[in-house]
Design goal:
Distance between the termini: 29 Å
Helix content: 55-70%
Strand order of the largest sheet: 1-2-3
Order of helices and strands: EHEHHEHHHHHEHEHHHHH
Strand content: 5-15%
Bound molecules: tryptophan
Shape: globular
Largest sheet: 3 strands, parallel
Amino acid sequence: MKKISLTGIKPTGDLHIGNYFGAINPALELAKEYDARYFIADYHGLNTMKDPVELNSTIRQVAAGWLAAGLDPEKVIFYRQSSIPEVFELTTMLMAFTAKGLMNRAHAYKAAVQENTEKGNDPDAGINMGLFTYPVLMAADIILFDTDIVPVGKDQVQHIEMAQDIAQAVNANYNQPVLKIPQAGVQDNAAVVPGLDGRKMSKSYGNVIPLFVPEKTLHKTIMRIVTNSQAVEEPKDPDASQIFLLYKLFASAEEQAALAARYRGGGMGWGEAKEELFRVVNRELAPMREKFNAIMADIPALDKILEQGAAKARPIAAATVRRFRKAAGID
Ligand code: TRP
């Protein structure tokens, strides 16, 4: 039997090429080898997004984005967390095995408390219980599907360790392997994607190249990449330029070698380097953008794909809850 890979996608808008190389592509690669279950973590989104119109449209945008990027819903079980009531049943059961102290140690919660303290606010100001218990919901997402591996970024490793702790507490209590213990699949060699300003590409830095904007906007964005003041004729070090680092993500080995030689030879200005970058980026993104727009133009069809995914996911989820309830004496 194939092993199971599962990951949750938080509904945050405007996917960018950092997400594409850092999360989407690695997860789609993994789906070739594993039985993959990928879902939109919309109830996680509710913790921070209280505007219904925004949340609703963001859910569709990320779903459409993953499909446009190549997720095949025939091969990957692709669904919305909110369509699986068993997630919330399992969350309640796991709560009974989760030490409050464990949640106190969660990085995200600790950072929020620290920020409040530094500002002289009440330590728990603005922190809702959804945020505080976030790791339990995430543990339920994972454990529900007998997950072997969770492809995530380094920032999520603590959450996976918490899921392990909680599942182990359950198994230890009943003295049997009721729940599968998941592992984090952190790709050490995942591409670090530089942003427009050279720092890591991140929505919070405002330095992203979005995946699905119109061609003109894409061009304009790439033209905004920050460069030094080296003159056109000066030889340039390709590896010291985020323009070239971005180029490498999209270009073939031959293209990379040829352009690196032009950087080193002098005579190529930053404007031209950006045009070369735009050419390869647009070559890859144009078909994806078209797919994305087509998917977004038919939301009922998109919703149907997600519902079909949920229909495949629910029997698996129900089996886990049944197993746990039986072990717990609630059957
Ligand atoms: N916490 C993850 C993030 O912020 C999203 C997420 C929710 C998730 N549930 C998950 C990731 C389960 C992996 C597995 O990106």
